[in-house]
């Protein structure tokens, strides 16, 4: 029924295999899919990869995710399904991992260049973010502003553009769908506190601390997107 996947855009391959099983009727309409852990074992991939695949299928309309209950095959006409283009965008967890690697290095370098003007800019963003935790759209814009402001400290406009571009990759339909399940005031509060740790490391002009603070922030961001859709409690991979 399931075939282990090769390490090439795994979430797309996982989505394709599940889509085929659903459209062929092997997984009937209305049936709950196996739990994430079981799907990950059968497909030979991580649970985050399974979550990315399930989000693709929900955006396409093939499945319905019911938090705390599981993922069910949707009751709709198969011919109405719009399959997302294979190169639509990178996987959400790949984007977050790339940001972790790149932005940690940028934070480290920023700590070597930071001045009072740069810290004031960060403080203004954090003050605004404090008042925007209930407004996800505004919080998202301020989150982006915080990360690009750190690149600004170095004084390299190309870095600012690059960070903005990689951040904006989270605007894909299935990244936004993933965020709709796991982002909210509590996650923005956590992000705000992590931003303050980054800010303090930069203000102390401590490159190692700034690098670690950014690495931890973006690692925890990945974990916040790694909750289970299913009925079983989340465990470490």
Descriptors for this entry?
237 residues; mainly alpha; Arc Repressor Mutant, subunit A; Four Helix Bundle (Hemerythrin (Met), subunit A); two-stranded antiparallel sheet
Can you put this structure into words, describing what you see?
It holds the Pfam family FCD. Residues 8-76 form the HTH gntR-type domain. This is FadR family transcriptional regulator. By secondary structure, the protein is mainly alpha-helical. The protein folds into 2 domains: 10-80, Winged helix-like DNA-binding domain superfamily/Winged helix DNA-binding domain (Arc Repressor Mutant, subunit A, Orthogonal Bundle), CATH 1.10.10; 92-224, Up-down Bundle (Four Helix Bundle (Hemerythrin (Met), subunit A)), CATH 1.20.120. Helix content is 64%, strand content 3%. The chain has 10 helices and 2 strands; from the N terminus they run αααββααααααα. It has helices at 10-23, 36-43, 47-60, 92-113, 116-130, 136-154, 157-168, 173-182, 185-203, 207-224; strands at residues 63-66, 70-73. Strands 1-2 form a two-stranded antiparallel sheet. Helix 4 (92-113) runs antiparallel to helix 10. It starts with 9 loop residues before the first helix and ends in a 13-residue tail after the last helix. Residues 233-237 have low confidence and may be disordered.
């Amino acid at each position: 029924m399931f075939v282990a996947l090769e390490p090439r855009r795994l979430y797309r391959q996982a989505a394709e295999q599940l889509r085929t099983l659903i459209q062929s009727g092997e997984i009937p309409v209305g049936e709950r899919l196996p739990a994430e852990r079981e799907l990950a074992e059968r497909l030979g991939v991580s649970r985050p990869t399974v979550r990315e695949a399930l989000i693709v299928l929900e955006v396409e309309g093939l499945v319905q995710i019911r938090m705390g209950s599981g993922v069910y095959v949707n009751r709709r006409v198969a011919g109405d399904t719009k399959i997302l283009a294979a190169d639509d965008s990178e996987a959400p967890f790949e984007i977050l991992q790339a940001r972790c690697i790149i932005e940690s290095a940028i934070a480290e370098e920023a700590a070597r260049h930071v001045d009072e003007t740069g810290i004031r800019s960060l403080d203004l963003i954090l003050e605004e973010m404090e008042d925007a935790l209930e407004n996800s759209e505004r919080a998202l814009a301020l989150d982006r502003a915080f990360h690009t402001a750190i690149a600004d400290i170095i004084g390299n406009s190309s870095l600012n553009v690059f960070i903005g571009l990689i951040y904006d990759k989270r605007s894909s339909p299935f990244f936004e769908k993933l965020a709709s399940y796991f982002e909210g005031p509590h996650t923005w509060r956590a992000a705000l506190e992590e931003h303050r740790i980054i800010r303090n490391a930069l203000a102390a002009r401590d490159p190692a601390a700034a690098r670690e603070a950014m690495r931890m922030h973006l690692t925890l961001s990945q974990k916040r997107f790694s909750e289970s859709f299913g009925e079983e409690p989340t465990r470490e991979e």
